[in-house]
Amino acid sequence: IKGVETIVGMFINTVPLRLKFEPGITILKLLEKTGNDLNDRKNHEDMSLADIKNLCQLKANDEFFDSIVVLENYPLEIDKINRDEELEIQSFRMDETTHYDLTLSITFFDEIHINLTYSHRFEDSIMETFVHRLQRLLEEMLANAEKPVSDINLITDEELNYILNEFNRPP
């Protein structure tokens, strides 16, 4: 970027990642494959989203996607910053906004934090259900990484009972 040395701020590039996997793949193998795909993608991280849209034959104002998962792992080394005796950082907070209808942000610092923001297109009750499904997904992944992805069950026994016996009850 011409003149970048005179610009203040962070430059973050969004590079899409599509997950493709074979039937029967385990959670662990999918995570390993995703990690490898992210590493392979590094050769293209300098490509702008506008260039990617162009290669996909999308117009500049066409949306490429309407949701995003943000993995935030900025190197934040407070100990190194706090070596200066006149300036000390005691705490910090990060607020991030996007224009996407659904943003799932995952931050990796001392702890892992997950934050979900969404637009008015989604009802709160729908998003509450989404959060419960996400929690169940993470619990299933942690409980048995050798489990096939296709065997992950996102609904509770109570929900399954409702679907089978109440929702689909003949009139």
Describe this structure in words.
The chain has a 3-stranded mixed β-sheet, with no helix packed on it. It has 171 residues and is an alpha+beta fold. The radius of gyration is 21 Å and the shape is globular. It has helices at 27-41, 49-55, 78-81, 124-143, 157-167, and strands at 67-72, 102-108, 112-118. The mean pLDDT is 83. It contains 5 helices and 3 strands; from the N terminus they run ααβαββαα.
Summarize the structure.
It is built from five helices and three strands. By secondary structure, the chain is α+β, with helices and mostly antiparallel strands.
Draw up the topology in text.
Layout: H1 27-41, H2 49-55, E1 67-72, H3 78-81, E2 102-108, E3 112-118, H4 124-143, H5 157-167
Parallel strand pairs: 1-2
Antiparallel strand pairs: 2-3
Query: Residue ranges: pLDDT <50 for 5 or more in a row?
Result: none
Number of helices: 5
Instruction: Specify the helix fraction band.
Output: 25-40%
Q: Averaging pLDDT over every residue, what do you get?
A: 83
> How many E-type strands?
3
Rg result = 21 Å
Write the H/E string, N to C: HHEHEEHH
Broad shape: globular
What strand order characterises the main sheet?
1-2-3
N-end to C-end Cα span: 65 Å
SS content category = alpha+beta
What about the largest sheet? 3 strands, mixed
Strand content: 5-15%
Main attributes?
three-stranded mixed β-sheet; alpha+beta; 33% helix; 171 residues; 3 strands
